[in-house]
Write a structure and sequence with these properties.
The complex is a heterodimer of chains A (about 270) and B (about 270). Chain A has about 270 residues and is mainly alpha-helical. Chain A contains eleven helices and no strands. Chain A has two domains: about 30 residues; about 200 residues, MetI-like (MetI-like fold, Orthogonal Bundle), CATH 1.10.3720.10. In chain A, helix 3 crosses helix 11, helix 4 packs antiparallel against helix 9 and helix 9 runs antiparallel to helix 11. In chain B, helix 4 runs antiparallel to helix 5, helix 7 crosses helix 9 and helix 8 runs antiparallel to helix 9. Classes of the chains: A mainly alpha (about 270), B mainly alpha (about 270).
Protein backbone atom coordinates (compact mmCIF):
# COMPACT_ATOMS: atom_id res chain seq x y z
CA UNK A 1 0.00 0.00 0.00
CA UNK A 2 1.43 3.34 -0.96
CA UNK A 3 2.37 6.00 1.57
CA UNK A 4 -0.33 8.51 0.48
CA UNK A 5 -3.05 5.91 0.76
CA UNK A 6 -1.89 5.01 4.26
CA UNK A 7 -2.12 8.67 5.29
CA UNK A 8 -5.68 8.79 3.94
CA UNK A 9 -7.15 5.57 5.36
CA UNK A 10 -4.86 5.22 8.38
CA UNK A 11 -3.00 2.13 9.54
CA UNK A 12 -4.14 -1.11 7.92
CA UNK A 13 -5.97 -3.52 10.17
CA UNK A 14 -3.96 -6.22 11.89
CA UNK A 15 -5.12 -9.43 13.50
CA UNK A 16 -5.14 -9.05 17.31
CA UNK A 17 -2.67 -11.37 19.02
CA UNK A 18 -3.74 -14.41 21.03
CA UNK A 19 -1.68 -13.30 24.04
CA UNK A 20 -2.33 -9.60 24.48
CA UNK A 21 0.55 -8.57 26.74
CA UNK A 22 3.57 -8.12 24.38
CA UNK A 23 6.13 -8.68 27.17
CA UNK A 24 4.52 -12.00 28.09
CA UNK A 25 4.19 -12.97 24.43
CA UNK A 26 7.83 -12.37 23.50
CA UNK A 27 9.03 -13.71 26.86
CA UNK A 28 7.19 -17.00 26.35
CA UNK A 29 8.48 -17.26 22.78
CA UNK A 30 12.08 -16.68 23.88
CA UNK A 31 11.70 -19.21 26.69
CA UNK A 32 10.31 -21.76 24.25
CA UNK A 33 13.19 -21.26 21.82
CA UNK A 34 15.81 -21.62 24.56
CA UNK A 35 14.09 -24.70 25.93
CA UNK A 36 13.77 -26.32 22.50
CA UNK A 37 17.45 -25.72 21.81
CA UNK A 38 18.53 -27.48 25.00
CA UNK A 39 15.96 -30.24 24.54
CA UNK A 40 17.14 -31.03 21.02
CA UNK A 41 20.79 -30.95 22.05
CA UNK A 42 20.23 -33.66 24.66
CA UNK A 43 18.54 -36.09 22.28
CA UNK A 44 21.23 -38.24 20.79
CA UNK A 45 20.11 -39.65 17.46
CA UNK A 46 22.00 -42.64 16.18
CA UNK A 47 21.47 -42.34 12.44
CA UNK A 48 23.27 -45.59 11.65
CA UNK A 49 20.95 -47.47 14.00
CA UNK A 50 17.87 -45.83 12.47
CA UNK A 51 19.11 -46.72 9.01
CA UNK A 52 19.43 -50.35 10.04
CA UNK A 53 16.01 -50.19 11.71
CA UNK A 54 14.26 -48.84 8.63
CA UNK A 55 14.24 -52.34 7.26
CA UNK A 56 12.24 -53.49 10.29
CA UNK A 57 9.88 -50.55 9.94
CA UNK A 58 9.27 -51.60 6.35
CA UNK A 59 8.65 -55.20 7.49
CA UNK A 60 6.07 -53.86 9.94
CA UNK A 61 4.24 -52.00 7.18
CA UNK A 62 4.40 -55.10 4.96
CA UNK A 63 3.09 -57.10 7.93
CA UNK A 64 0.04 -54.85 8.01
CA UNK A 65 -0.58 -55.59 4.34
CA UNK A 66 -0.72 -59.33 4.99
CA UNK A 67 -1.23 -59.98 8.72
CA UNK A 68 -0.64 -63.49 9.97
CA UNK A 69 -3.56 -64.61 12.14
CA UNK A 70 -3.02 -68.35 11.84
CA UNK A 71 0.46 -69.39 12.97
CA UNK A 72 0.07 -67.96 16.51
CA UNK A 73 -3.70 -68.21 16.63
CA UNK A 74 -3.98 -70.22 19.87
CA UNK A 75 -1.73 -67.72 21.71
CA UNK A 76 -3.62 -64.78 20.29
CA UNK A 77 -6.99 -66.31 21.16
CA UNK A 78 -5.90 -67.08 24.72
CA UNK A 79 -4.48 -63.59 25.25
CA UNK A 80 -7.52 -61.94 23.76
CA UNK A 81 -9.93 -63.93 25.94
CA UNK A 82 -7.86 -63.08 29.00
CA UNK A 83 -8.05 -59.37 28.09
CA UNK A 84 -11.82 -59.56 27.60
CA UNK A 85 -12.30 -61.38 30.89
CA UNK A 86 -10.10 -58.93 32.78
CA UNK A 87 -11.99 -56.03 31.23
CA UNK A 88 -15.43 -57.35 32.20
CA UNK A 89 -14.51 -58.42 35.73
CA UNK A 90 -12.55 -55.29 36.56
CA UNK A 91 -15.20 -52.94 35.18
CA UNK A 92 -17.91 -54.63 37.26
CA UNK A 93 -15.80 -54.69 40.42
CA UNK A 94 -14.56 -51.15 39.80
CA UNK A 95 -18.10 -49.79 39.43
CA UNK A 96 -19.27 -51.64 42.54
CA UNK A 97 -16.48 -50.07 44.62
CA UNK A 98 -16.73 -46.67 42.93
CA UNK A 99 -20.38 -46.00 43.76
CA UNK A 100 -19.98 -45.81 47.57
CA UNK A 101 -16.77 -43.81 47.18
CA UNK A 102 -18.49 -41.42 44.76
CA UNK A 103 -21.30 -40.91 47.30
CA UNK A 104 -18.66 -40.16 49.92
CA UNK A 105 -16.74 -37.81 47.63
CA UNK A 106 -19.77 -35.61 46.89
CA UNK A 107 -19.70 -32.66 49.26
CA UNK A 108 -23.47 -32.06 49.20
CA UNK A 109 -24.43 -35.47 50.63
CA UNK A 110 -21.37 -36.55 52.65
CA UNK A 111 -20.02 -35.16 55.94
CA UNK A 112 -16.56 -33.59 55.85
CA UNK A 113 -14.44 -36.44 57.36
CA UNK A 114 -15.87 -39.02 54.94
CA UNK A 115 -15.48 -36.54 52.09
CA UNK A 116 -11.78 -36.08 52.87
CA UNK A 117 -11.11 -39.83 53.02
CA UNK A 118 -12.92 -40.55 49.75
CA UNK A 119 -11.24 -37.65 47.92
CA UNK A 120 -7.88 -38.95 49.13
CA UNK A 121 -8.62 -42.42 47.69
CA UNK A 122 -9.64 -40.84 44.38
CA UNK A 123 -6.49 -38.70 44.26
CA UNK A 124 -4.20 -41.68 44.93
CA UNK A 125 -5.87 -43.80 42.29
CA UNK A 126 -5.65 -41.03 39.69
CA UNK A 127 -2.04 -40.11 40.38
CA UNK A 128 -0.59 -43.61 39.94
CA UNK A 129 -0.08 -44.85 36.40
CA UNK A 130 -1.72 -48.21 35.63
CA UNK A 131 1.56 -49.77 34.56
CA UNK A 132 3.28 -48.84 37.81
CA UNK A 133 0.39 -50.21 39.87
CA UNK A 134 0.52 -53.39 37.78
CA UNK A 135 4.26 -53.81 38.39
CA UNK A 136 3.80 -53.58 42.15
CA UNK A 137 0.76 -55.86 42.18
CA UNK A 138 2.54 -58.46 40.04
CA UNK A 139 5.36 -58.47 42.58
CA UNK A 140 2.85 -58.97 45.39
CA UNK A 141 0.26 -61.34 43.85
CA UNK A 142 2.41 -63.13 41.30
CA UNK A 143 2.09 -63.25 37.51
CA UNK A 144 -1.31 -63.71 35.93
CA UNK A 145 -4.65 -62.06 35.27
CA UNK A 146 -5.44 -61.46 38.96
CA UNK A 147 -2.86 -58.66 39.15
CA UNK A 148 -4.29 -57.14 35.96
CA UNK A 149 -7.82 -57.41 37.31
CA UNK A 150 -6.84 -55.64 40.54
CA UNK A 151 -4.94 -52.94 38.65
CA UNK A 152 -7.83 -52.13 36.34
CA UNK A 153 -10.35 -52.14 39.21
CA UNK A 154 -8.14 -49.74 41.14
CA UNK A 155 -7.78 -47.43 38.13
CA UNK A 156 -11.55 -47.54 37.50
CA UNK A 157 -12.19 -46.23 41.02
CA UNK A 158 -10.31 -42.98 40.45
CA UNK A 159 -11.95 -42.29 37.12
CA UNK A 160 -15.53 -43.26 37.89
CA UNK A 161 -15.74 -41.94 41.46
CA UNK A 162 -14.41 -38.53 40.50
CA UNK A 163 -16.76 -37.98 37.58
CA UNK A 164 -19.77 -39.48 39.35
CA UNK A 165 -19.12 -37.35 42.44
CA UNK A 166 -19.02 -34.25 40.25
CA UNK A 167 -22.37 -35.26 38.75
CA UNK A 168 -23.87 -35.77 42.21
CA UNK A 169 -22.55 -32.40 43.37
CA UNK A 170 -24.22 -30.62 40.46
CA UNK A 171 -27.61 -32.36 40.76
CA UNK A 172 -30.88 -30.78 41.75
CA UNK A 173 -31.23 -30.93 45.58
CA UNK A 174 -35.02 -30.41 45.60
CA UNK A 175 -35.88 -34.03 44.82
CA UNK A 176 -33.67 -35.52 47.57
CA UNK A 177 -35.15 -33.01 50.02
CA UNK A 178 -38.67 -34.04 49.04
CA UNK A 179 -37.78 -37.69 49.61
CA UNK A 180 -36.20 -36.80 52.96
CA UNK A 181 -39.32 -34.96 54.08
CA UNK A 182 -41.35 -38.17 53.73
CA UNK A 183 -39.26 -39.63 56.54
CA UNK A 184 -37.22 -41.96 54.37
CA UNK A 185 -34.20 -43.89 55.60
CA UNK A 186 -30.75 -43.02 54.24
CA UNK A 187 -30.84 -45.87 51.68
CA UNK A 188 -34.30 -44.85 50.44
CA UNK A 189 -33.10 -41.28 50.21
CA UNK A 190 -30.18 -42.32 47.96
CA UNK A 191 -32.29 -44.79 45.98
CA UNK A 192 -35.22 -42.47 45.19
CA UNK A 193 -33.70 -38.99 45.50
CA UNK A 194 -30.16 -39.25 44.15
CA UNK A 195 -29.94 -42.35 41.97
CA UNK A 196 -32.55 -41.44 39.32
CA UNK A 197 -30.78 -38.12 38.69
CA UNK A 198 -27.31 -39.59 38.08
CA UNK A 199 -28.21 -42.97 36.56
CA UNK A 200 -27.86 -41.88 32.92
CA UNK A 201 -24.43 -40.42 33.60
CA UNK A 202 -23.37 -43.52 35.54
CA UNK A 203 -24.28 -45.83 32.65
CA UNK A 204 -22.50 -43.58 30.15
CA UNK A 205 -19.36 -43.42 32.28
CA UNK A 206 -19.39 -47.18 32.82
CA UNK A 207 -19.55 -47.85 29.10
CA UNK A 208 -16.72 -45.40 28.51
CA UNK A 209 -14.64 -47.03 31.21
CA UNK A 210 -15.24 -50.50 29.73
CA UNK A 211 -13.70 -49.16 26.55
CA UNK A 212 -10.69 -47.68 28.40
CA UNK A 213 -10.18 -50.85 30.46
CA UNK A 214 -9.92 -52.96 27.32
CA UNK A 215 -7.32 -50.59 25.87
CA UNK A 216 -5.31 -50.69 29.10
CA UNK A 217 -5.61 -54.47 29.42
CA UNK A 218 -3.76 -54.72 26.11
CA UNK A 219 -0.58 -53.29 27.68
CA UNK A 220 -0.69 -54.80 31.15
CA UNK A 221 0.72 -58.02 29.70
CA UNK A 222 4.02 -56.21 29.08
CA UNK A 223 4.71 -56.30 32.81
CA UNK A 224 3.29 -59.79 33.36
CA UNK A 225 -0.24 -58.91 34.44
CA UNK A 226 -2.03 -61.04 31.86
CA UNK A 227 -3.92 -60.25 28.68
CA UNK A 228 -3.05 -59.88 25.01
CA UNK A 229 -0.08 -57.61 25.80
CA UNK A 230 2.01 -60.65 26.74
CA UNK A 231 1.35 -62.22 23.33
CA UNK A 232 2.18 -58.94 21.65
CA UNK A 233 5.43 -58.62 23.58
CA UNK A 234 6.49 -62.14 22.60
CA UNK A 235 5.73 -61.40 18.96
CA UNK A 236 7.85 -58.23 19.12
CA UNK A 237 10.70 -60.10 20.77
CA UNK A 238 10.70 -62.64 17.95
CA UNK A 239 10.44 -59.85 15.31
CA UNK A 240 7.31 -61.56 13.93
CA UNK A 241 5.84 -58.38 12.52
CA UNK A 242 3.03 -60.13 10.66
CA UNK A 243 1.73 -61.56 13.97
CA UNK A 244 2.21 -58.13 15.58
CA UNK A 245 0.12 -56.59 12.82
CA UNK A 246 -2.59 -59.21 13.34
CA UNK A 247 -2.74 -58.54 17.11
CA UNK A 248 -2.77 -54.76 16.63
CA UNK A 249 -5.58 -55.09 14.09
CA UNK A 250 -7.62 -57.18 16.55
CA UNK A 251 -7.06 -54.55 19.27
CA UNK A 252 -7.99 -51.64 17.00
CA UNK A 253 -11.08 -53.43 15.69
CA UNK A 254 -12.28 -54.32 19.20
CA UNK A 255 -11.74 -50.78 20.44
CA UNK A 256 -13.61 -49.35 17.46
CA UNK A 257 -16.54 -51.73 18.00
CA UNK A 258 -16.67 -50.97 21.73
CA UNK A 259 -16.48 -47.24 21.07
CA UNK A 260 -19.30 -47.48 18.54
CA UNK A 261 -21.54 -49.50 20.90
CA UNK A 262 -20.83 -47.27 23.88
CA UNK A 263 -21.50 -44.18 21.76
CA UNK A 264 -24.85 -45.63 20.71
CA UNK A 265 -25.85 -46.52 24.27
CA UNK A 266 -24.82 -43.13 25.57
CA UNK A 267 -26.81 -41.39 22.85
CA UNK A 268 -29.90 -43.47 23.59
CA UNK A 269 -30.00 -42.83 27.36
CA UNK A 270 -29.26 -39.11 27.23
CA UNK B 1 -47.08 -44.65 38.12
CA UNK B 2 -48.08 -48.31 38.44
CA UNK B 3 -50.05 -49.48 41.45
CA UNK B 4 -50.52 -53.02 42.63
CA UNK B 5 -53.14 -54.45 44.99
CA UNK B 6 -51.69 -56.13 48.03
CA UNK B 7 -54.07 -57.48 50.72
CA UNK B 8 -56.75 -55.08 49.50
CA UNK B 9 -54.39 -52.09 49.78
CA UNK B 10 -52.97 -50.11 46.90
CA UNK B 11 -49.19 -50.01 46.99
CA UNK B 12 -47.10 -47.68 44.84
CA UNK B 13 -44.19 -49.09 42.83
CA UNK B 14 -41.59 -47.40 40.67
CA UNK B 15 -42.00 -49.81 37.73
CA UNK B 16 -44.66 -52.13 36.42
CA UNK B 17 -44.20 -55.89 36.39
CA UNK B 18 -42.71 -56.29 32.93
CA UNK B 19 -40.16 -53.52 33.37
CA UNK B 20 -39.22 -55.04 36.70
CA UNK B 21 -38.78 -58.52 35.20
CA UNK B 22 -36.67 -57.10 32.38
CA UNK B 23 -34.45 -55.44 34.94
CA UNK B 24 -34.00 -58.65 36.89
CA UNK B 25 -33.10 -60.46 33.67
CA UNK B 26 -30.51 -57.80 32.92
CA UNK B 27 -28.99 -58.16 36.36
CA UNK B 28 -28.99 -61.95 35.97
CA UNK B 29 -27.05 -61.77 32.70
CA UNK B 30 -24.62 -59.28 34.23
CA UNK B 31 -23.94 -61.45 37.28
CA UNK B 32 -23.45 -64.56 35.10
CA UNK B 33 -20.98 -62.66 32.89
CA UNK B 34 -19.04 -61.49 35.93
CA UNK B 35 -18.94 -64.95 37.49
CA UNK B 36 -17.81 -66.48 34.19
CA UNK B 37 -15.04 -63.88 33.94
CA UNK B 38 -14.08 -64.43 37.55
CA UNK B 39 -13.79 -68.22 37.09
CA UNK B 40 -11.47 -67.60 34.15
CA UNK B 41 -9.27 -65.28 36.21
CA UNK B 42 -9.29 -67.66 39.14
CA UNK B 43 -8.15 -70.51 36.87
CA UNK B 44 -5.26 -68.45 35.60
CA UNK B 45 -4.05 -67.49 39.07
CA UNK B 46 -1.45 -69.24 41.17
CA UNK B 47 -3.33 -69.04 44.48
CA UNK B 48 -0.30 -69.95 46.56
CA UNK B 49 1.21 -66.54 45.74
CA UNK B 50 -2.04 -64.81 46.62
CA UNK B 51 -2.17 -66.38 50.08
CA UNK B 52 1.40 -65.25 50.74
CA UNK B 53 0.64 -61.76 49.40
CA UNK B 54 0.47 -60.03 52.81
CA UNK B 55 3.97 -61.26 53.65
CA UNK B 56 5.24 -60.24 50.21
CA UNK B 57 3.70 -56.78 50.59
CA UNK B 58 5.15 -56.41 54.07
CA UNK B 59 8.57 -57.52 52.85
CA UNK B 60 8.54 -55.01 49.99
CA UNK B 61 7.35 -52.22 52.23
CA UNK B 62 10.04 -52.74 54.86
CA UNK B 63 12.70 -52.71 52.16
CA UNK B 64 11.23 -49.68 50.37
CA UNK B 65 11.10 -47.44 53.44
CA UNK B 66 13.02 -45.22 53.84
CA UNK B 67 13.74 -44.23 50.23
CA UNK B 68 17.40 -43.99 49.28
CA UNK B 69 17.59 -40.19 49.06
CA UNK B 70 21.16 -40.06 47.76
CA UNK B 71 20.03 -41.82 44.57
CA UNK B 72 18.28 -38.60 43.46
CA UNK B 73 21.58 -37.28 42.07
CA UNK B 74 21.51 -40.00 39.42
CA UNK B 75 17.92 -39.16 38.48
CA UNK B 76 18.18 -35.54 37.29
CA UNK B 77 19.16 -36.53 33.76
CA UNK B 78 16.31 -39.03 33.58
CA UNK B 79 13.80 -36.43 34.79
CA UNK B 80 15.01 -33.98 32.14
CA UNK B 81 14.62 -36.69 29.48
CA UNK B 82 11.12 -37.52 30.69
CA UNK B 83 10.00 -33.91 30.49
CA UNK B 84 11.55 -33.62 27.02
CA UNK B 85 9.78 -36.75 25.78
CA UNK B 86 6.44 -35.37 26.94
CA UNK B 87 6.98 -31.82 25.66
CA UNK B 88 8.53 -32.59 22.29
CA UNK B 89 6.08 -35.43 21.77
CA UNK B 90 3.16 -33.08 22.39
CA UNK B 91 4.71 -30.46 20.09
CA UNK B 92 5.12 -32.83 17.13
CA UNK B 93 1.67 -34.28 17.76
CA UNK B 94 0.12 -30.80 17.61
CA UNK B 95 1.98 -29.94 14.40
CA UNK B 96 0.60 -33.06 12.73
CA UNK B 97 -2.82 -33.00 14.39
CA UNK B 98 -3.65 -29.52 13.03
CA UNK B 99 -3.83 -30.47 9.33
CA UNK B 100 -5.48 -33.82 10.10
CA UNK B 101 -8.16 -32.07 12.14
CA UNK B 102 -8.89 -29.70 9.24
CA UNK B 103 -9.14 -32.68 6.89
CA UNK B 104 -11.43 -34.55 9.29
CA UNK B 105 -13.84 -31.75 10.24
CA UNK B 106 -17.08 -31.91 8.25
CA UNK B 107 -17.11 -28.19 7.42
CA UNK B 108 -13.49 -27.82 6.26
CA UNK B 109 -12.64 -31.18 4.68
CA UNK B 110 -11.81 -30.98 0.97
CA UNK B 111 -13.61 -34.22 0.19
CA UNK B 112 -16.22 -35.92 2.35
CA UNK B 113 -15.99 -39.37 0.83
CA UNK B 114 -12.26 -39.88 0.34
CA UNK B 115 -10.11 -37.69 2.56
CA UNK B 116 -12.38 -37.47 5.61
CA UNK B 117 -12.57 -41.26 6.18
CA UNK B 118 -8.78 -41.51 5.78
CA UNK B 119 -8.24 -38.77 8.37
CA UNK B 120 -10.73 -40.44 10.73
CA UNK B 121 -8.97 -43.78 10.28
CA UNK B 122 -5.63 -42.20 11.21
CA UNK B 123 -7.25 -40.72 14.31
CA UNK B 124 -8.81 -44.01 15.41
CA UNK B 125 -5.69 -46.08 14.75
CA UNK B 126 -3.51 -43.68 16.72
CA UNK B 127 -5.96 -43.48 19.61
CA UNK B 128 -6.65 -47.15 20.12
CA UNK B 129 -3.04 -48.26 20.50
CA UNK B 130 -1.39 -47.41 23.82
CA UNK B 131 1.82 -45.36 23.80
CA UNK B 132 3.73 -48.27 25.39
CA UNK B 133 2.94 -50.43 22.36
CA UNK B 134 4.03 -47.66 20.00
CA UNK B 135 7.20 -47.36 22.07
CA UNK B 136 7.79 -51.11 21.81
CA UNK B 137 7.50 -50.89 18.03
CA UNK B 138 9.71 -47.80 17.73
CA UNK B 139 12.41 -49.21 19.98
CA UNK B 140 12.77 -52.08 17.55
CA UNK B 141 12.90 -49.66 14.61
CA UNK B 142 14.96 -46.63 15.74
CA UNK B 143 16.70 -48.32 18.66
CA UNK B 144 16.37 -47.64 22.40
CA UNK B 145 16.57 -44.04 23.58
CA UNK B 146 14.76 -40.76 23.97
CA UNK B 147 13.95 -40.49 20.26
CA UNK B 148 11.77 -43.63 20.33
CA UNK B 149 9.89 -42.16 23.30
CA UNK B 150 9.31 -38.81 21.59
CA UNK B 151 7.98 -40.45 18.43
CA UNK B 152 5.82 -42.93 20.39
CA UNK B 153 4.25 -40.17 22.46
CA UNK B 154 3.60 -38.02 19.40
CA UNK B 155 2.01 -40.85 17.41
CA UNK B 156 -0.25 -41.68 20.34
CA UNK B 157 -1.21 -38.03 20.86
CA UNK B 158 -2.06 -37.22 17.23
CA UNK B 159 -5.38 -39.04 17.41
CA UNK B 160 -6.36 -37.50 20.74
CA UNK B 161 -5.50 -33.91 19.72
CA UNK B 162 -6.93 -34.22 16.21
CA UNK B 163 -10.21 -35.64 17.52
CA UNK B 164 -10.77 -32.84 20.04
CA UNK B 165 -9.60 -30.25 17.53
CA UNK B 166 -11.89 -31.35 14.70
CA UNK B 167 -14.82 -31.36 17.10
CA UNK B 168 -13.90 -27.76 17.96
CA UNK B 169 -13.71 -26.89 14.26
CA UNK B 170 -17.14 -28.38 13.62
CA UNK B 171 -18.60 -26.21 16.37
CA UNK B 172 -17.33 -22.85 15.06
CA UNK B 173 -19.60 -19.95 14.20
CA UNK B 174 -20.09 -20.10 10.41
CA UNK B 175 -21.20 -16.46 10.25
CA UNK B 176 -17.64 -15.20 10.78
CA UNK B 177 -16.33 -17.52 8.07
CA UNK B 178 -18.94 -16.20 5.66
CA UNK B 179 -18.06 -12.61 6.54
CA UNK B 180 -14.41 -13.24 5.68
CA UNK B 181 -15.43 -15.00 2.46
CA UNK B 182 -17.59 -11.99 1.52
CA UNK B 183 -14.49 -9.75 1.53
CA UNK B 184 -13.10 -11.88 -1.31
CA UNK B 185 -10.52 -13.69 0.78
CA UNK B 186 -8.63 -16.69 -0.57
CA UNK B 187 -9.24 -20.09 1.09
CA UNK B 188 -6.12 -19.93 3.25
CA UNK B 189 -7.06 -16.39 4.34
CA UNK B 190 -10.50 -17.68 5.31
CA UNK B 191 -8.78 -20.31 7.39
CA UNK B 192 -6.38 -17.91 9.13
CA UNK B 193 -8.84 -15.08 9.77
CA UNK B 194 -12.15 -16.93 10.00
CA UNK B 195 -11.47 -20.30 11.60
CA UNK B 196 -8.14 -20.24 13.46
CA UNK B 197 -9.02 -17.40 15.89
CA UNK B 198 -12.19 -19.26 16.86
CA UNK B 199 -10.43 -22.52 17.71
CA UNK B 200 -7.31 -20.98 19.25
CA UNK B 201 -8.53 -21.18 22.89
CA UNK B 202 -9.55 -24.83 22.57
CA UNK B 203 -6.29 -25.56 20.76
CA UNK B 204 -4.27 -24.17 23.67
CA UNK B 205 -6.46 -26.05 26.13
CA UNK B 206 -6.00 -29.34 24.28
CA UNK B 207 -2.23 -28.80 24.09
CA UNK B 208 -1.86 -28.32 27.83
CA UNK B 209 -4.30 -31.12 28.65
CA UNK B 210 -2.41 -33.59 26.46
CA UNK B 211 0.94 -32.42 27.83
CA UNK B 212 -0.27 -33.28 31.32
CA UNK B 213 -1.31 -36.78 30.17
CA UNK B 214 1.98 -37.23 28.32
CA UNK B 215 4.04 -36.47 31.43
CA UNK B 216 2.29 -39.40 33.12
CA UNK B 217 2.77 -41.69 30.13
CA UNK B 218 6.40 -40.77 29.52
CA UNK B 219 7.34 -41.87 33.04
CA UNK B 220 6.73 -45.52 32.15
CA UNK B 221 8.04 -45.59 28.55
CA UNK B 222 11.48 -46.50 29.85
CA UNK B 223 10.18 -49.94 30.84
CA UNK B 224 10.42 -50.95 27.19
CA UNK B 225 13.64 -49.00 26.63
CA UNK B 226 12.29 -45.74 25.26
CA UNK B 227 14.18 -43.40 27.59
CA UNK B 228 13.19 -41.33 30.59
CA UNK B 229 12.88 -42.18 34.26
CA UNK B 230 11.26 -45.53 33.43
CA UNK B 231 14.72 -46.84 32.50
CA UNK B 232 15.93 -46.24 36.05
CA UNK B 233 12.72 -47.73 37.41
CA UNK B 234 13.22 -50.86 35.36
CA UNK B 235 16.87 -51.16 36.37
CA UNK B 236 16.01 -50.73 40.07
CA UNK B 237 13.21 -53.30 39.82
CA UNK B 238 15.50 -55.80 38.13
CA UNK B 239 18.04 -55.62 40.95
CA UNK B 240 15.18 -55.62 43.52
CA UNK B 241 16.44 -52.39 45.04
CA UNK B 242 13.14 -51.31 46.56
CA UNK B 243 14.53 -48.25 48.32
CA UNK B 244 15.48 -46.84 44.89
CA UNK B 245 12.08 -47.84 43.47
CA UNK B 246 10.26 -45.97 46.22
CA UNK B 247 12.32 -42.83 45.57
CA UNK B 248 11.57 -43.03 41.84
CA UNK B 249 7.86 -43.48 42.54
CA UNK B 250 7.93 -40.41 44.78
CA UNK B 251 9.63 -38.40 42.03
CA UNK B 252 7.01 -39.56 39.49
CA UNK B 253 4.17 -38.69 41.87
CA UNK B 254 5.70 -35.25 42.41
CA UNK B 255 6.05 -34.68 38.64
CA UNK B 256 2.44 -35.72 38.05
CA UNK B 257 1.15 -33.37 40.74
CA UNK B 258 3.20 -30.45 39.34
CA UNK B 259 2.13 -31.06 35.74
CA UNK B 260 -1.50 -31.27 36.80
CA UNK B 261 -1.13 -27.99 38.71
CA UNK B 262 0.51 -26.27 35.71
CA UNK B 263 -2.12 -27.49 33.26
CA UNK B 264 -4.95 -26.44 35.57
CA UNK B 265 -3.39 -22.95 35.93
CA UNK B 266 -2.89 -22.49 32.19
CA UNK B 267 -6.36 -23.75 31.33
CA UNK B 268 -7.79 -21.43 33.98
CA UNK B 269 -5.94 -18.51 32.39
CA UNK B 270 -7.22 -19.34 28.88
CA UNK B 271 -10.89 -19.97 29.66
Amino acid sequence: MSAELTSVVGQPWKKPNFIKNPLLRWGLLLLAVVYLYFAFVTIDVNWARIYRGLDRGWQFIVGFANPDFTSRWSDIYEGFMESVVMTIASTVAGIAISIPIALGAARNIAPLPIYMVCRFIVAISRALNEIIVAIILVKIFGFGPLAGFLTLSFATIGFLSKLLAEEIESMNMVAPEAIQSTGSSWLQWINYGVQPQVMARLIGLSMYRLDINFRESAVLGLVGAGGIGATLNTAFDRYEFDSVAAILMIIILTVMTLEYISGMIRERIQ
Amino acid sequence: MPMIEKNGQKVWQVRNRNAQLLRWAGWFVGVIAFLWAWRFISDGTEWYYVWTAPEAAHDILTRAVPPKWSYINKLWGAIWDTVNIATLGTLFALIMAGPIAFLAARNTTPSKWVIRPIALLIIVASRSVNSLIWALLLVSIVGPGVLAGVVAISIRSIGFCAKLLYEAIEEIDEVQVEAIKATGARPWQVMIYGIVPQIMPSFAGIAVFRWDINIRESTVLGLVGAGGIGLQLNASLNILSWSQVSLILLVILFAVVISEWVSAKVRGAII
